[in-house]
Amino acid sequence: MQRIIFHMDGDAFFVGCEVAKNPGLRGLPVVTGEERGIVSALSYEAKTLGIKRGMPIFRVKKDFPCVLVLPGDYASYTRFSQMMFDIVRRYADDVEEYSIDECFADLTGLDRTLKMSYLEIAERIKREVTVELGLSVSVGLAPTKVLAKVASNWVKPNGLTVIDPEKTAGFLLKTPIEKVWGIGPRTAEYLKKKNIQTAGDFAEKDVSWVRNNLSQPYESMWLELNSVCVSQVDSEPKTVYSSIQKTRTFHPPTRDTTFLLSEFSKNIEDACRKARHYKLVSKKISFFLKSRDFKYFTLKIVLDSPTNAPEVLVHEVRLRLGEMYKPGVIYRTTGVTLSDLVPDTVQQGDLFGSGIKAGKFESIHRQLDLLEEKFNKRVVYLGSTHKALNKKKLGTDSEDLDRDLLFL
Length: 408
Ligand SMILES: [Mg+2]
Fold this sequence. Notes:
Order of helices and strands: EHEEHHEHEEHHEHEHHHHHEHEEHEEHHE
CATH class of the domain at 244-404: Alpha Beta
Largest sheet: 6 strands, antiparallel
Helix content: 40-55%
CATH superfamily of the domain at 244-404: DNA polymerase, Y-family, little finger domain
CATH architecture of the domain at 244-404: 2-Layer Sandwich
Bound molecules: magnesium ion
Structural class: alpha+beta
CATH topology of the domain at 244-404: Dna Ligase, domain 1
Strand content: 15-25%
């Protein structure tokens, strides 16, 4: 049976959420990512100025003083994301939360159940997201997930594009091969050498060519481009995160490095505990200090081997605090982000160095986690967290944010 797959993608999503929270920002050049030190999302107005994702924040501030720079507020992005997906669930049972701002839904057969055309269903969802949440989204309808991604990307922002099976050729011949979902830069380069420039060139090849020249996943992709639905909408809830962030704001603000390190230690312990819970490790870690007047100072480290052992990170931040700590500045918040998380089955490569040490710590933490699960409370803290805990006992913590970031 011909399937009808719906794909929805938030337009400049993080900035979209900021605008939804504060409509005064609409139409202005806005970027988020201040706390990470790089642009993580930008409004279309900021894009027009030539700003790109990943650009250092200090450069944006220097070269584009008219641009509004905001720290990411991931707790609210996650809320908007869930509300957006809940609107789709009003219509479809099978909704796949593909990332924080993208989902697929299988609408097959719903035209009869809901007594509406597929286009009407898509329009209703899009309108409800815009009216109720104040978010702009782009939507695609097509017979497969790969084609639905092509469709939602066709008109952006605020687009709604339908790709009928008999009309795919027109779309695909105008879609550069590297824009197809799942084709990485290496494969794109390889295909271009074989004179395949567009998704259409690829779809027109016959199956034996695909089998002889590429591995199995590309045969599925080729089928999907030819309107054969291979990949099902997977509505299992996602539990895997690509990054974990923990932050703490304290009162009064301080410049006391011992105290700040203790706050970092608490951030690190909490983030690592969460990472262990999901059996994830990271080797890209960033720290930030936020000053009393809301300026961010960041430190990024890349470890030789990934870990979720807090001892390793506490050691690193203690060694390198000076790279973000500016004497004379008074700080109110600390935070840590573990990025590019990978399953902890990917083992440490570095056998003789930090890998072994981290491995030892990891097995201790596994035992402690079991103990804590048994008693259903925190049993053991690192000595370096002591001051931060005392502070908490005094009841002076004004917030203790826990943010789960993007899905993998
Ligand atoms: Mg998006």
